[in-house]
Design brief:
The protein has 396 residues and is an alpha/beta fold. The chain has 3 domains: 8-138, Sulfate adenylyltransferase (Roll), CATH 3.10.400; 146-295, Rossmann fold (3-Layer(aba) Sandwich), CATH 3.40.50; 322-396, no CATH class. It has 13 helices and 17 strands. The chain is globular, with a radius of gyration of 25 Å.
Amino acid sequence: MKSSRKNKTLLIDSEAASALELLSDGLLSPITKLMNSKESKEVLTTALFDGKSFPFPFILAPSGRLNEEVLSSLVAGEEVTILLGDEPFATLVVEEVFKINPKDRIKQIYGTDDLSHPGVSATINRIGSLAVCGEYKLINESKNKNKQKIQEAKKLIDAKHTTAIVMAANPLHRAHERLIRQVLDTTDLLVIFLLKPYTESNLSYEIRRDSLDYFINNFLTKNHVVVVPLENSYIFAGYNEIIIDAIVAKNYGCDRLTIGTNHAGLGMFYDCNSNKSIIDKVIGIDIEITVASEYVYCNKCTTLVSKGRCPHGQHHHISYKADSILELLELGILPPSILLRKEISAAILSKLFPNRFKNLGKIYYDIFPVEGLLQEHTEKDFYLELVKLYQTTSLT
């Protein structure tokens, strides 16, 4: 007979919940459970778990005075309810509660505890000084069907190789398109893990997903690309990001991972008379990691080229810096088609600035050639026609 006494409760946020769901779905193997103090110390010393790479201890250490009081009172064998917001998220049977140093954990994840680092400042306040481990069970079973979706896509085309790319596509620019095409030339199936942030910043996930779907559906061969949302929690941050990307991609069924040369986590270092990167630290994860070229537009070559292969100097290159392109969009400026596909620019601006024009119909018929018939046009139509005028060269 079950006791009528209520369990003690711990409160977690959506980032911690996402990490627990990844673990429950088997997507963080070799990690299969929350680590205890002994396992945590081993990972801290070796960056290995069960002989395979894992960059930092996988623990649950929620911050807050109430959480600390509950954690301090827990004993082995006791069941605790984990809350996400006001709703029960999981139950956990306590194995051990142990002390951690939040600053040390921040350093393990980000490589620094400098509060001027945006990731550090966002994460430091959500990590407490006590961690709990034990078997846990989600209240509602995970509804993640993406692993099955990838397997079905592989079976459909009899894929021998499946390659992963992790990207924000914020926004999806021409260099992203070139990278996607390049990867498709060397693989059967491409899985794009589209980052889904927890905070509202820049372009929403929905806008970025719509842009990516438009490109895939209209400009790539069918059945060779699968898009999977990847909730961009703190465990994917810092200089160990590539290792976690590789682990998740492998557990989703990919045998290759492609990253860009400008990936923030790539970082080169000098060891034993040779240049190495974080890729050389990946041990026991059976996935091939390749580094793709950085693409620029060369106004001498008049096309997108690999930055390292183009014979012309940087003064001939137009770079694809997502932050700068995004700033144009956020200011309501239509980026040149050389940077962003016009259909994507038009769709993004029409969503960022809905009902922007006082009399769209009048402006449309005043400045664009029309066939004389009065028709209703959307703001997206307006931007597409505006791009055509920008591309008119007879007076320049």
